[in-house]
Amino acid sequence: MLQNGEKNIPRCCFFSCSSLHAQLEHDEHVRDVLLVRLSYINEKISTFDEEYTMQSVLSRSSMNNLTKSVRNYNILIVGAGIAGPAFAYFLQRYGMRPVIVERASKLRLDGQTIDLRDEGKEIVRRMGIESKIREKITHDQGVLMVDSQGRTRASFAVNDIGENGYVAEIEILRGEFATILYESTRDNAEYIFGDYPESIDDDGDQVQVKFGSGMTRKFDLVIGADGIHSKTRQLVFGNTPISYTDLYIAYFAIPVAESDSNWSRWYNAPGGRCIILRPDNQNMTRVLLFFRSKERGYERLDVDAQKSLLQKVFADAGFEASRVLRDLSNTDNFYFDCAGQVKMDRWTRGRVALIGDAGYCPSLLTGMGTNMAFVGAYILAGELARHRDYNEAFKQYEILMRPYVAETQKLFPGYASAITPKTRAGIAFRNAILSITSKPAVAPLLKKLLDGRTKKNFSLPDYETLIKD
Predict the structure, then answer these.
(1) Could you tell me the domains of the chain?
(2) Which end of the chain, N or C, is less surrounded by CB atoms within 10 Å?
């Protein structure tokens, strides 16, 4: 019954349900509702190029002013996670030797799998570290959408829908990625672990930073790369509210079981709950738990209280919840937060700027946090090398990044219901759509539609002529 219209159906979801397949074949109302929704998605994708053209912004920013006369700024970077060292790498290539301060006593190697897509992959190519990253990828083959018995209802391999799928071509553990960046920058940067800015005083000519250790130093510029809960942002820009969703997330690692494979498994339970099990390259299974709640403040509980909350929320979830909750008690690699976004009118003030999640966290729901951090670090470093006046560099950074960030932070309508449906009927209906969109006949169309959203209009500035040999 769907064959005549099948060419118009994007495949942007993930499940299957045999009973609803039959219903879709015989119930015209359900079929019509589905086709209307898919038509809406197709329309939004087809108009995306008109709404977002970062290339046009970049092309207007003439690169003819590039010069090898690079000012050697004395820069403090706050945060040695991903964005900070990436920024430091490019500063080094332009002849600068930054200082990086990290609150943790040593390099943080915990965290989940992160991915690189499109412009992120291009930047690591320009950095010359792509081969090192590929040596450490998790080899995740794709995602299986499963029911409470672990039966596969739909499957999406890595390359089925190109760069827009849940699993990307390059998936690497955050700790291994952080190590590569650290090893690539430590020889030409000063790393300070176990310290943090306690005050930041910008007098217009320099920035005086007093650290928690009592040390005081002066810098030309300070760059905050210290995450969604940025201390730098708080000190310089005040209390910028985080735009929280009603979706809580927990990450941790558990031992591998016989049921695990080199495919991720995604399971939804009624009540807006989700369990995702992902493979890694360290003989562990990475767990992501999602649940919906309008109660605020769970992210501020201590770790033991957060684990107890998860025990209660997922106690009757089904699938492999009992295994997950059993191993949860013993894990040290644990992260819990409420999904949120950071939205600011400006990312610069005086001699201070923000990059990555500190300035424009898109939330993990977009899957673009690492890419945005890399693009921001690359552009800000390039503009500082291009302009001897940091004010002009900051201005261009804002101009180039603003359209990209605004578009990336857009969450599609009904995202929470799509990720974590609350009812069994909602899960079944979503799964039926996923089943249809996972069919081989639909995949090429969806891939073409999604690949065409922005990529032909996106181009990174070329700052290479600034690099000092």
Answers:
(1) 54-138+170-242+341-411+456-466 (3.50.50.60)
(2) C
